[in-house]
Structures are given as C-alpha cells and as structure tokens.
Design a protein that fits this description.
Keywords: Membrane, Transmembrane, Transmembrane helix. The chain is an all-alpha fold and about 230 residues long. It has 9 helices and 2 strands; from the N terminus they run ααααααββααα. The chain has one domain (about 1-130, about 180-230). Helix 1 (about 1-30) packs antiparallel against helix 9 (about 200-220) and helix 4 packs antiparallel against helix 9.
Length: about 230
C-alpha cells in the first residue's frame, strides 16, 4: 500500500513535468508540441506532398530522435540493471539547460529535438501507477480513461466494480489535473521569462529527485539498481 502511494505521487509529479515540457514547447516554439509525434507526422506528409524537402528532413529528424529515445530506453531496460528513473532526472536537467540556451529564432522543430528525446524517454520509463498504464507527457488516453471510468461508475450496480471504476477515474483524472498544472506553470512563467522560463523546471526536477531518493533510502532500496534485477 505504501509503495502504491509512492508510485502515485511520483507519477503525478512527473505528469507536472510532462505538462510543463508540453506547455513550454507550445508557448515558446510557435505552437509546436514537443512531446508527441502525431502533428509532426501530419505536417511531414504535407511537407513531402508540397515538395518542401528541407522541412521534411527536419521533421523526419524529429521522428528519428523520438524513436531513438524509445529504442535506448527499451534497450537499457532489458540489458542493464540501472534504475532508469534516475537517468530520466539527469537527462531532463541537461535538456532544460539546452532548451534555455537555444535562441528563439531557431527552427522550432529543431529547437525541440532535446524535448522530443527526453519526453519520449520519460514516457518509456514512467509508465503509470496502481497497475494502470498512463502517460505523463500528453493527455488523450488519460481523458478517455477518466471519462469512460466515471461513466461506468454510474452505470454499473456491483459495489466492488463501482469502487474500482471510481478509483480508476480519480487516478486518471488526477493525472490530467497534474499535467495541466504543469501547463499552467509553463504559461505563467513564459509571460515573464520567455525561452528562459524552462529553467524554472529545474526546481521541480530537483524536488522530484529528492523525493524519489529519500523514499528509496528510507526503505533501504538500492537507488542505482532496480530491485527486481538484483540477482
């Protein structure tokens, strides 16, 4: 039960991080969403059909960066004993610093290559909590799960099932709330600090890292090696 509580807290904290990254990308880089590939792939098809080959190459590069992050995360999951949550924190700190250094007049897709990489990596490592698969970097499935679960709560009669549906709906709803808290923070800070607003994310990442480390040390969990791989 305590582990479940911990997992939910860290999931929500990472959802705030994901929301901040997503909001920052949209607010500072010409409405480009730096945490997913749907819009980029649609625009890639448009660029290819319109013979905009430079733009096409830039967008293909974004896809490659996104996929590469997933490949590396998956490889490290299967081939190492590392606790990848810590690696995510380190990588995102580096990403934040890089994003703050990239000028506003750079092509927005290129400027978000670091964001594409780390958010994809985060998605592969922080996959959910309480047995639910939930993204911390975008909202579509979280909206679906919240709405469907709460609708089912009012439709079913079995009390045990109702409890489970309510629990699920609240979990996914909480993820949505935290994600958009991150978006709101990104917007407010963008108004005052523009591209440099991303540096404030360092504060949240340090808080997340400190909480994660404290929990592991308090429960005598190895902070570098995943306990299931300590064979």
């Amino acid at each position: 039960m305590k582990n479940d509580y911990h997992d939910v807290i860290i999931h929500y904290l990472m959802a705030i991080v994901g929301g901040f990254f997503g909001g920052y990308a949209i607010f500072t880089r010409m409405n480009v969403f730096g945490s997913a590939q749907t819009a980029n792939l649609i625009d890639l098809v448009k660029a290819l059909l319109g013979s905009h080959y430079i733009d096409s190459l830039i967008r293909i590069g974004a896809v490659v960066v996104y996929i590469l992050a997933m490949i590396i995360a998956t490889f490290l999951t299967y081939r190492t004993k590392w606790k990848l949550q810590y690696l995510v924190f380190y990588m995102e700190i580096v990403c934040v610093i890089l994003l703050a250094m990239i000028p506003e007049d750079i092509n927005p897709i290129v400027s978000l290559y670091p964001c594409f990489f780390v958010t994809a990596f985060q998605w592969c490592v922080f996959k959910g909590a309480l047995g639910y698969t939930s993204s911390t970097i975008f909202s579509t499935n979280n909206i679906k799960q919240t709405v469907v679960s709460l609708t089912e709560y009012f439709l079913v009669d079995d009390l045990q099932i109702k409890h489970e549906k309510l629990k699920k709906g609240c979990f996914f709803g909480g993820t949505l709330l935290c994600f958009h808290i991150g978006v709101a923070l990104a917007y407010i800070l963008h108004l005052f600090f523009a591209v440099k607003a991303i540096l404030f994310l360092l504060i949240l990442l340090i808080i997340n890292f400190a909480y994660f480390t404290y929990y592991d040390k308090y429960h005598n969990i190895n902070i570098f090696i995943h306990p299931k791989k300590m064979v």
